[in-house]
Amino acid sequence: MPELPEVETIKNDLNKKILKKKIREVVILKKGTVRGDARKFKNILRGNYFEDIGRIGKLLIFKIAPGDNFLLVHLKMTGQLIFRKKGKVIAGGHSQPEGDDFLPGKHTRVILKFSDDACLLFNDLRRFGYMQIVGEKELEDVLKNYGIEPLTKKFSLENFTEALDRRKISVKAVLLNQKIIAGIGNIYADEILFAAGIKPDRKVDSLSKKEILTIHNSAQKIIKQAIKYRGTTFNDYVDSDGNSGNFVKHLKVYGRAGKKCVRCGGIIKKIKLVGRGTHYCPDCQV
DNA sequence: CTTTCTGTTAGAAA
DNA sequence: ATTTCTAACAGAAA
User: Fold this and answer.
1) Protein residues contacting strand B, judged by Cβ under 7 Å
2) CA A123, A127, A133, A138 torsion: positive or negative?
3) For a Cys staple, A21 with which of A9, A96, A112, A114, CB 3.0–4.6 Å?
4) CA-to-CA distance for A148 and A178, rounded, in angstroms?
């Protein structure tokens, strides 16, 4: 489940690995993953290269050069981007090779082959993820749908408070809403609220100034930590080398239903909120 | 065997 | 306008 820290990890790694590499061939193995016209998709990529890789929320943005096009990659729930050097076998991920360097795994949807025989595989078990090429104007429209990035200057206490203002939804719903704050998903929403000591079902209009401040601090702390540990592997997430994220060892509530709270010894509860499994400690989150 | 659950987001429904 | 629900999908668990 790639959220901001996982997508950030992939972005940083791929920026070191694939920039300037000429794309020799584009293989689409399953329809549906590539949005728009597949032939156009291939034509825009083939013979060109990536100049830079950016990110907004959970969305990866590859600048294609030369030209004014961008490749968008959304991993949704089970998407993986795996980089393989020539002849290099990757242990993790859904793309277990079986002999041939480029033989796709069962869930490989798209392969970008570079001219040095390295490749980038897009795997996606549940096929919710997508790849799409957009121009500058379309990209701007996409960016408009995203709220504040938690690790930028725009995520000031003032802006955060403003974003919460006059809403009647739960604090977890706010954290998960990409139009309000970009990049937080189910795992980190639960972890942030645990760190802040706030119950996920609290309505935002019931939060005191102090509580908002605490959530604001916790959000930055948790996301920074998670990036430092290269993200969380709970089910399918792996980085571009096929390796798991290490933050899973630092999770304090997510996936710990029925276990003892590390802070107060209470029993972690799991409920359904905003249609999602939601974990919290009923004793030390208020 | 069938049903339930998993979690992201667009788009529909309320 | 704002909030809630559901479909898309594959597979593990119950």
Assistant:
1) A 1, 3, 57-59, 74, 76-77, 126, 128, 145, 176, 178, 185-187, 270, 272, 275-277
2) negative
3) A114
4) 8
Burial of A91 (0-12, 13-18, 19+ CB in 10 A): exposed
State how far the Cα of A274 lies from the Cα of A258, in Å rounded to an integer. 21
Q: What are the mean pLDDT values of chain A's consecutive 10-residue runs (286 residues total)?
A: 91 96 94 89 97 95 96 92 76 46 76 94 91 92 91 94 89 92 92 94 93 96 94 85 89 89 92 88 94
